[in-house]
Amino acid sequence: MRSEIQFTLNGEQVKVEVEAHWTLLHLLREVLQLTGTKEGCGYGECGACTVVVDGKAINSCIFPVMETEGRSVTTIEGLLSKKGELSPLQQSFMEHGAVQCGFCTPGMIMSAHALLSEQQNPTEDEIKTSIEGNLCRCTGYVKIIDAIKAVAEERSL
Known about the structure:
Strand order of the largest sheet: 2-1-5-3-4
Low-confidence stretches: none
Distance between the termini: 53 Å
Oligomer: single chain
Helix content: 25-40%
């Protein structure tokens, strides 16, 4: 049985019919065709599916779609400017070589985005804590941490 939910997605109000057993990831990728959010493990362990709900990084593969009602959801697509330009965080990942295969990148960026939205200039330990639920098999984490630190340092100037 389908139900209608309303929520804010990337700054825009949406109204959509969903099945109660769906996850937020299913809605984003299969229904709304927002494929920047990836499915890795399907169990909330790898972080590839990370999006931001009401300012907090969450694993969309285990987040019940019905819980999005009335909330604000931001995906990797929502970080682009209206002109389609990369956000400073996305640009920093590119400049610091913090992307290789790219599969973990959207989740990493969304976890970092949630952190930087809460804290102007986080410490390296806070950055590490914010991405500890995101697995990367290609780059290691040094370049990713450097990319996040660069954005934080730029904002604090």
